[in-house]
Structure of Glycosyl transferase:
Amino acid sequence: MRRRGPRLAIFLPSLAGGGAERMMLNLAQGLVASGIELDLVVGSAAGPYRDLVPAGCDLVDLGAGRVLTALPGLVRYLRRRRPTVLLAAMDHANLIALWARRLARVPTRVAVSVRSTLSQEARHASSLAGRVLPRLARVFYPQACAVIAVSQGVADDLTRLIGAGRARVLVIPNPVVTSELAAQAAERPDHAWFQPGLSPAPDAGLEPARAPVILAAGRLTPQKDFPTLIRAFAALAEGRDLRLLILGEGPQRPALESLIRDLGLGERVALPGFRANPFAYMARARLFVLSSAWEGLPGVLIQAMACGTPVVSTDCPSGPREVLDGGRLGPLVAVGDAAALAAAIARTLDRPPAAALLRARAADYGVVPVTRRYLEVLGLGDGSGGGS
């Protein structure tokens, strides 16, 4: 039986298959395990991550198609349920949470979590709403009981944008590594490139060899800059028998498929779509590559390291430099430089780092230590199931 105590609510726009949603569900898992009474409040409960909502967490579906239209439902929820703290994630949801608390006139404290480099998000936004986010953050984020950034780079960027004192922006990394990751990594991927090959392995007793697979994962959007990765792979694959697999779905699929055809890579590059368990692919890939133009804290990079897989990343703002200890655990290359990315991939294929070093670093982003830090910052106990 769960202990009675303070109630925490997490507010998300939806359960779509994005990195922010996955990280908050990991946090929800840690919070429930710590004994916190938890509501997961979503604008819409539709999405591939619905099955990942942990048992013991109350799912509240506001039935809103867009995050802005979730405002009336969130106000009603706050008046009815009156959680001790409401933790919002993603910038539009952060603003809606702050507005809802004000309209509801309840004593609930609101904490906001900033998942990406806001200045970059605004600079690349296609809508007016996205471009004005920094101005709205400057006005409303100081009203939060805590402003939480997922990396030091995100915190520094946010501090410049909102003009708050540095102490007001706290850094808590994402809870990337779960207790189930190892078991999920042990599952067999469903892609043909990870099935046993047709030619015998050179060493007796080993599984038949196949061409090494380079893996990437993320939404097919300009932020992830997969065109640079595909061009780097094209240059690299001229002298090597390699494959490139990019997991994810998004609006850039037609453009990426066209680029793959133009480069004559149709047999060597695949876009199989979203996969709920990318860890099975990470564990069997020869190398994982993050080609992003910007990030907050790239969870897929950390997950690949937790699987013991070597990584190469762009030195984008922000997160990779922090995760990779300035390049000690994997090469960092300039954003958009296909030649440098190809060279870094080649070096890492030839001289991969020890898997134990990568796993040890990834453990810093485990659910347990991150959950403990959230409970401390939100004033909800020490993570052992106690109250405030």
Observations:
- The radius of gyration is 21 Å.
- Residues 198-209, 383-388 have pLDDT under 50 and may be disordered.
- The chain has two domains: 7-175+366-378, 181-364.
